[in-house]
């Protein structure tokens, strides 16, 4: 007998009372091939002896989780002499985490360079003028891996060709050209604006009194989106019966940004960030102003956020294995 073990999507807890057993084999040999299973699904298999007059009890459960499908569309987001950003999308039926493998053009053995639940791989240690091959594998909760994704080839540029337009404030208008306020995806390089307010405390001998907030100025930040809290957003929306999209999730979604540069006006100059610093922002605060992004290196392969989240829906679920 075989039964699949689903999970409660809102809590990631097992729902054992809805598993339906199915008889998949009757016979007198000691092996069987079961077909028609879903990828990335946990199945419980039990065996019993069936005689002409009586049947034995069911055996202990053998828990088998099918491997996931390969990841979809590994894509180059950004490429330089020594750095690369590669994004991919989860397969149908999901996965628990992902492995990135890489090799140079003359190597025969693939090396694991990344093992995580994130869908963005960042490397800053490549060699200039070098050809690399990259592929991605999906991994289920038991550790079984999928077949590799399609292999992408990257060739790093010359060491002297490391000048990216998004690094220059003077090239903002020609670089950040795509309005993406409701379509912020991990991997995007974005331009945001923030207004800063502060409170002035007046101190006297008899009392100290705090005045109303004072406008300090604006700052513009160019940054890479390196992470978000999708799992929290998904579970919160499911628990409150809301659709999982960029609009309904704006109150819950948080993004982590790697700062490229900051330009400040008026008294906001004292609140600058350093290049490479990681900052955290709520989406609803970012959306107070329009947000723009750069083109990806392979822009045509970029998915809309809602399409990506649809694929992520069955990812990261935990099973009692």
From TrEMBL:
<dbReference type="InterPro" id="IPR050991">
    <property type="entry name" value="ECM_Regulatory_Proteins"/>
</dbReference>
<dbReference type="InterPro" id="IPR036116">
    <property type="entry name" value="FN3_sf"/>
</dbReference>
<dbReference type="Pfam" id="PF00041">
    <property type="entry name" value="fn3"/>
</dbReference>
<feature type="domain" description="Fibronectin type-III">
    <location>
        <begin position="70"/>
        <end position="159"/>
    </location>
</feature>
<keyword id="KW-0677">Repeat</keyword>
<dbReference type="InterPro" id="IPR013783">
    <property type="entry name" value="Ig-like_fold"/>
</dbReference>
<feature type="domain" description="Fibronectin type-III">
    <location>
        <begin position="1"/>
        <end position="69"/>
    </location>
</feature>
<protein>
    <recommendedName>
        <fullName>Fibronectin type-III domain-containing protein</fullName>
    </recommendedName>
</protein>
<dbReference type="InterPro" id="IPR003961">
    <property type="entry name" value="FN3_dom"/>
</dbReference>
